[in-house]
Amino acid sequence: MYKLRNKGIALILMVVFLFVAAGCGKGGQMSRNGEEDVIKLGFLGAKTGSVANYGIPAEKGMKLAIEELNAKGGILGKKVEGIYEDNKGDSAEIASIATKYITRDKVVAMVGDPCTGLTKVAADIAQKNGVVLFSPGATGPGVVEIGDYVFRNTLLDVFAVPAVVDWMMNEKGWKNFAVITSLNNGYSTALTPVFKDAINKKGGKIVLEDSINDGETDFTAQVTKLKKSGADVLVFTGYYTEAALIMNEVKKQNFDICLVGGDGLYGQDLAKLGKDAVEEKVIFYCGFSSDQPSPETEAFLKKYREKYKEEPDMFSAQYYDAVMILAKAMEDAKSTDPKVFKNELAKLKDYPGVSGRTTFLPSREPVKSPVCLITIKDGKFKLLDKIEVNV
Fold first, then answer.
1. Which CATH superfamily is domain 158-286+374-387 in?
2. N or C: which end of the chain has fewer CB within 10 A?
3. pTM above 0.90, yes or no
4. Number of H helices, E strands in the chain
5. Domain range 36-154+292-360, CATH class
């Protein structure tokens, strides 16, 4: 009986030992101390819902970058794994996903979100937990100020808008501006003051200020006022769905005016919903165009087209760049520990990405150049002009 008891205890101890050993064997996946067997990156973006036009191509760009890294041996000789949850464009969802990525999946960095408000939610969680958050889409204010683990590589409105307003006034001769804001859209309410400030400083005149809400579909009243305002151009600071519907109403009222906005208009549904009403009538700025590509962009276009049988957009390009920039920082730091490689990340200068050249200021804010002005022709996004950014 004594021997049997001892044998039973020995067997239990052996099982426990094997279990612990197995856990230790995967310990790299459960820590962020630079000894990972697998380096995990968490995707932040919507694959369903109202902003899925941003998240779907973004995921593809991130996957392509990780695939390329692993084909070349990974990062510091370790395999890279992407984890891809759908935050549905919802603040509660992204908070839950960011927490899961950090506490359960043990990611060293999160890549996303395309939207400023959602990025801020995840960035706060990342900062408090010492994990890098790298947004390839958030353009509004108050992002990197959250803390030294927070970065972004997108074209910032504060740098892009003055260049775009200058182009509108000097290249197009538009002096009188109408401005429409979507009041329940944080991106729009943050972008409008940037446009107004640039217009005023450059001597333009705002002849009409009006508002809508995301989700509305009838813009008869707004376009009627716009038609009577004497505006040379409409600045709309919201997203692609409402922009398409506004231009449909413009066409219905037999009114000839262009709509100009930010990269929130960069969604395939703009052309699908607006059809000929948006053809060469909508112009938006962003940091990427497949036209007139650099050597880096040309290589990316070839790989993306071969893999997905479609054209990449700004979000797929910027997510691709974000992953590659993170990999560079880890390689330069010789560490996958966020508290170590974030310092190398902050030193980025003139990185030749597929979405343009990126330099981080001491504030960790990115300066990207050039600004690409995009319009729609034959149902596809086409480069209209490029503007250099001087800061």
1. Response regulator (3.40.50.2300)
2. N
3. no
4. 12, 15
5. alpha beta
